[in-house]
Amino acid sequence: MLKSVILIPHVARTATRQALENATRILDELGVSYSVDPTQEQSFSPAPELVISLGGDGTFLAAAEKAREFDVPVIGFNTGHMGFLTEVGVTDFSQAITQLATGEFTTQARYCVELSVMRKDGQVSHHWALNEAAILRTSLQRPGNFTLGVNQHPVSQYAADGMLISTPTGSTAYAFSAGGPIMWPDVPALLVVPLAAHGLFTRPLVLGPESEVEVGLDPEQRTGIEMLLDSRRSVTLNASDQVSAKLACQPLKVATLSEVDFSSRLVSKFQLPVEGWRKN
User: Is residue 276 part of a domain?
Assistant: First the structure.
């Protein structure tokens, strides 16, 4: 039996508020301590053992930040729209909460990307993302000018709206919308997707697990550039800044209640046509 969990709800939705009421009721009945959307300063006793998101994929990404902070699993309950990252629908809610509280779940490791930003003056800051780092121009007047390197070797230059550095998990998110391939979440790889780039060499690149990606901003860059991490956290970039990225040593632990194959999740979430599969 778990002793303590964190609940991260999207309270603007009626369905989420109802789900939150059900969750807290069941946890109270089972004697499991919980905290709802805790602040950074809040202390925990006992320490949380699981983070539960109630909402859509955006809420799951918020919950993932808290889960990674405590190095505990996270699971998503879908009260939103597509909810590709979420595990449980509201119809299975009560049973799922009980299973989680009694520890009847397994965990999967999801690759994250860790990033370093080196400034012109030598200062370095460190960041991470579960889905992607989106390096984007902030003005429509001029494109961003980027150089791409892999493992200390130059690859190409781009005049583009931006550059995406995506994980396998993020390959079904922004990178997918930008024309990138879908990668199964257990593939140890990074995906680089130029966004609306001018030139002939603008295809997405899939890089191996030991690869280190470098995206440099042109020294004469005049358009503002922002790096968005999972569309939740932002870092302002300046001319001559360098962003390096690689697979993170610390993966995200994702709790699961079933052994649904990723292929089945794709079919379900994207409503893919598979009626003729192996009929003969």
Answer: no
How many domains are there within the chain? 2
Give the max Cα distance, the chain.
Answer: 66
Give pLDDT, residue 43. Answer: 67
Q: What is the CATH number of the domain that holds 51?
A: 3.40.50.10330
- 15 by DSSP, 3-state: which? helix
Per-residue pLDDT tens over the stretch 191-226: 999 999 998 899 999 999 999 999 999 999 988 999
Is residue 177 marked as binding?
Answer: yes
Is residue 275 in some structural domain? no
Residues 73 and 196 in one domain: no
174 in a labelled binding site? yes
Count of other CB atoms within 10 angstroms of residue 66:
19
Shared domain check, 88 and 23: yes
Looking at this protein, which amino acid is placed at residue 29?
A: E
Residues 226 and 122 in one domain: yes
| pLDDT tens figures, 151-201 | 999 999 999 999 999 999 999 999 999 999 999 999 999 999 999 999 889
pLDDT in tens, 264-276: 889 988 889 988 7
Any binding-site annotation on 146? no
- Given the residues 28, 57, 71, 241, the one annotated as active site: 57
57 is catalytic: yes
Q: Is 158 annotated as a binding residue?
A: no
- The answer to whether 144 touches 160, Cβ cutoff 8 Å, is yes
Q: Is the pTM of this model over 0.85?
A: yes
Supply the pLDDT for residue 80. Answer: 73
Same domain? 234 vs 261: no
Contact at 8 Å (CB) between 25 and 36?
no
Is residue 16 helix, strand or coil? Answer: helix
Q: What is the distance of C-alpha 244 from the center of its chain? A: 18
Do residues 16 and 106 share a domain? Answer: yes
